[in-house]
Every structure is written in C-alpha cells, then in structure tokens.
Amino acid sequence: MKEYHVSPTTTHQMFIHAVHRYLVWATFAALALAVTLSFLLLKRVLHPLVQMIDITKKIAQGDYSAKVPIHSQDEIGQQARAFNQMADSLQKVEQLRKSMVLDVAHELRTPLTNMKGYLEALLDGVLPPSRENLESIQEETGRLVRLVEDLLRLARADAARATLQKKEIQIANLITQELE
Questions:
Q1: Which residues contact 129 (CB under 8 A, 6 or more apart)?
Q2: Which end of the chain offers a freer environment for a tag, N or C, measured as fewer CB atoms within 10 Å?
Q3: Distance from C-alpha of 38 to C-alpha of 12, rounded to nearest angstrom
Q4: What is the pLDDT of residue 97?
Q5: pLDDT score for 162
Q6: What is the pLDDT of residue 1?
Q7: Does residue 76 come out as left (phi exceeding 0), alpha (psi in the -120 to 50 range) or beta?
Q8: In this predicted model, what pLDDT tens digit does every residue of 62-87 receive, in sequence order?
Q9: Cα 108 to Cα 148: distance, rounded to the nearest angstrom
Q10: How does DSSP assign the chain, residue by residue?
C-alpha cells in the first residue's frame, strides 16, 4: 500500500462496500430462487389435490367415471389411489341401486297390473264377482304386501348396519360353544 501510495482506510472502505454490495445481490438472488422453487414445489404438491377437488365435484354430480391420475408412489399417490378406489365403489353401489330400483319397480308393477285388470274386468262385467276372482285379487294383494314388507326389512337392515358394533370373534370357540 505504501508502494502505490494508497491509504489503508480507503481500501478497507472500498472492500467493505464491495462485500456489502455482493451480499445484497446474493440475498436478492437467493430470495428470488427460494420464491421460485417454493412456487414450483407448492404447485407440484397442490396440483393432485386440486384435481381431487375437481373430481370430487364431478362425483357429487353423479359422474363416477372421473379418476385422479396417479403420478407418484408417495402419500399423494396413495391418496389418489384410495380416492379412485372410493369412486369405483361408489359407482358399483350406484349401479346396484339403479338395478334394484328397476327390479322393485318391475316386481311391484306385475301384481298391480294383474289387480287392475281383474278390477276393470269386474267393473265392466266381463268377469263375474265370483269367489275365485276375488281370491286372485287377494293373492296379488298378498304378493304386494310381501314385497313391501321385504323392502321395509331391507331398509331396517341397512339402517341397523350403521349402528352395529362389530367385534372380532374366535370361530373355533363359537363352534365349540354351539356343539356343547
């Protein structure tokens, strides 16, 4: 420093200012990088969840064919797999429900149609009001009553299923008790 006639305090001040300037720029660069990486990682993590929300809305509207794409094997991938299994189960239950409603409608329509035909024939005088014709109507009425009772029993069993307390049992012990 003596050789070039430079004051040590001026050099020191220039060095301190240069370090501060680089530290400020490095801080801004690190902050920008951190914000960018945070945004990209957050988007990557939240994207499957946003998809699940959208597909949940579709399922709530009755579209059970929508599935969440599975891109990974981590917790999000496991959640997507479980979500798709739930959607499949709901779709099967909905198909069974529709099938049951069709079956019930058909089973109820048959005796009602028979009864209606007998009653119209009796009212029009085509059939005489004999004991035999009245027994046919009573038979169809009994059939209807049994169908409705079966439906009520099914509804009660379904309602009771929610309140059942399941517990594990040892089948061998149960068999031994029954045999004794």
A1: 122
A2: C
A3: 38
A4: 83
A5: 63
A6: 58
A7: alpha
A8: 888 888 888 778 888 888 888 888 88
A9: 9
A10: -TTTT--HHHHHHHHHHHHHHHHHHHHHHHHHHHHHHHHHHHHHHHHHHHHHHHHHHHHHTT-TT--PPP--SSHHHHHHHHHHHHHHHHHHHHHHHHHHHHHHHHHHHHHHHHHHHHHHHHHHTSS---HHHHHHHHHHHHHHHHHHHHHHHHHHHHHHHHH-------HHHHHHHHH-
Give the domain ranges of the chain: 1-45
The CA distance from 116 to 139, in Å, is 13
Six token digits for residue 178: 């029954």
How many residues can be counted in the chain?
180
For residue 167, what pLDDT is reported?
77
In whole angstroms, what separates CA 77 from the centre of its chain?
A: 16
- Block means of pLDDT (10 residues each) for the chain, 180 residues, are 69 86 96 95 84 86 82 82 88 86 82 85 85 85 86 77 73 86
